[in-house]
Specification:
The protein is an all-alpha fold. The chain has one domain. Helix content is 75%, strand content 0%. It has 15 helices and no strands.
């Protein structure tokens, strides 16, 4: 138990803090964006550093599930909302990144991607790997954050150069996503034995058996996902009339600029193909 209770600063927390300072100093000018970014950063630090991060990595599947849901459902959307459009344009401008964002912005693709990553990070081999290595823990948490960003690209409709869904479609997408991102929960609830041998000390620290912790994680995965995502979906749907859904979406300069860039790239590819022929 001593290693668990010993304070230490995880390298991912230090990296996040440095990146946040650099981005805030260089790009964020709005006070509102700064406040949102601060909330996202503080929340991220709380769930990845000692003691929550250690408990999630080595002790409790329930805490690990909560950690991942907080990152995906709170930290990721707040980071997107606090990122200035100019920075989003710059980050997604490279050809490969632009292609990946355009592909992942499709609701069906985004839902499938998030389901695969979210499920994979909570499988037995990955959880055991994360429990045995600080580097592995960081890789897993970064993957969870990326999955969270992908989850909210169609839902928030703020990424430059992507298709912007109507409010009704966004609400439907968020509602549907909540049903598929917790695919392992039923396995945890109905399993008759613990599936995670590298998680230990549940009884000493949390006063529950490993099996009870695992079953509790199944219920937490469902309700901690359903409640916030359904609330967001309902709010977007309720405000659909205020945004005039019968009209076309407003034109954004960032989208126009990205489409022009893609046209130029397509012309370059065509020119190179003709030269080869």
């Amino acid at each position: 138990m001593k290693p668990l209770l010993a304070f230490h600063l995880h390298w991912l927390a230090f990296t996040c803090a440095v990146l946040a300072v650099v981005i805030e100093r260089s790009f964020v000018t709005s006070k509102h964006e700064r406040r949102v970014a601060l909330v996202a950063l503080v929340t991220l630090l709380v769930v990845v550093v000692w003691p929550v991060g250690d408990v999630a990595a080595t002790v409790s599947l329930t805490v690990a599930t909560l950690q991942r849901l907080v990152i995906m459902l709170l930290v990721a959307p707040l980071l997107l909302l606090s990122t200035p459009t100019a920075l989003l344009v710059r980050l997604t401008r490279p050809r490969l990144v632009d292609g990946a964002v355009q592909f992942l912005s499709h609701p069906g693709v985004a839902m499938a991607f998030v389901t695969v990553i979210g499920t994979a990070t909570l499988t037995t081999p990955v959880v055991d790997w994360s429990a045995s290595s600080s580097l592995a823990r960081g890789v897993v948490l970064i993957a969870v954050l990326v999955a969270g960003v992908v989850l909210w690209i169609p839902g928030l409709a703020i990424m430059p150069g992507t298709r912007r869904l109507s409010p009704v479609a966004r609400a439907g997408y968020i509602f549907a996503s909540s049903l598929v991102v917790t695919s392992l929960s039923f396995v945890w609830i109905f399993s008759r034995h613990s599936l995670y041998p590298d998680l230990h000390h549940q009884h000493a620290l949390l006063h529950m058996t490993p099996l009870l912790d695992q079953q509790l994680a199944g219920f937490v995965a469902k309700f901690a996902c359903y409640i916030p995502m359904w609330a967001v979906a309902f709010t977007i749907f309720a405000r659909a009339d205020e945004t005039s859904t019968t009209e076309e979406s407003p034109l954004h300069w960032a989208d126009v600029e990205r489409q022009l860039l893609r046209v130029d790239r397509q012309r370059e590819r065509s020119s190179r193909r003709e030269l080869r022929e």
